[in-house]
Amino acid sequence: MNKIWAPWRSQFIYSRKKKGCIFCEARDARDDKKSFVVERSESSFSMLNIYPYNNGHVMVAPNRHKASLKVLKPGELADLMLLLNRTTQRIDKALKPDGYNIGINLGKVAGAGFPGHVHIHIVPRWLGDTNFMPVISGTKVISESLNSLYKRLRQCQKR
Predict the structure, then answer these.
(1) Which has the closest alpha carbon to 66: 54, 52, 77?
(2) Which three-class secondary structure state does DSSP give residue 133?
(3) Mean pLDDT of the chain
(4) pLDDT on residue 136
(5) Could you tell me if residue 6 is inside a domain?
(6) How many Cα atoms sit within 13 Å of 46 on the Cβ side?
(7) What is the helix (H) or strand (E) element at residue 38, kind and residue range?
(8) Please, which of 13, 76, 77, 157 could form a disulfide with 43 given CB 3.0 to 4.6 Å?
C-alpha cells in the first residue's frame, strides 16, 4: 500500500473545533495573509479554503453574517458577484484551470459547514484531475501548499 503524507491535516484532526464563524473571523482579521484573505471589496471578501476540495479552492462571502442570498441588499449581491468574477479571473491567471465547479450550499442539510454565513465555493478543475485516488482510496491529493497558493493568487491582482 502506498502512503501519501499530509501532515498539515493533523492540525484539523486533533484540534478543538472552533466555535463561531470562520467568515466573520476572516472578515475581522487584521492580517489577511494569516487569514488567507485573497481580496476585499466594499461589502465582500474572498479567502482560501484551508481544507480544499482541489488546489485553488476559494470561497467568496459577504461581509454581513447572513444565511441566504435573498436577504442581501442589491448592492451587496452585485458586489459579491463582481468579486466572484474577479476571483475566477485571478485563479485563471495563476493556475490556468480547464473549468470550475462554483456552488452555494444553503443550509446544513445541503452541506453548508457554516450555514449561518452564506458563501460561494469556487473549485478549479483540470482535465483528468479525477483519478484513482478519490475513486479507489477516498483520498484527494492537493498539489500546492496554502502559503504558496496564497502568494500566487495575491500576485495576480487585476490591474
Answers:
(1) 77
(2) helix
(3) 84
(4) 42
(5) no
(6) 27
(7) strand 37-40
(8) 76
Q: Which domain holds residue 127?
A: 21-154
Number of structural domains in the chain = 1
72: how many CB neighbours lie within 10 A of its CB?
Answer: 18
pLDDT winner (highest mean) among 15-19, 114-118, 135-139:
114-118
Which residues carry out catalysis?
119
129-to-59, 64, 100, 143 alpha-carbon distances in Å: 20, 34, 12, 11
DSSP for 49-117?
-SS-SSTT-EEEEESS--S-GGGS-HHHHHHHHHHHHHHHHHHHHHH--SEEEEE---SGGGT-SSTTS
Report residue 61 as a C-alpha cell.
462571502
Which stretch of 44-53, 68-77, 85-94, 150-159 has the lowest confidence by average pLDDT? 150-159
> What count of residues does the chain have?
159
Long-range contacts of 11-16 (CB under 8 A, 24+ apart): 12/51
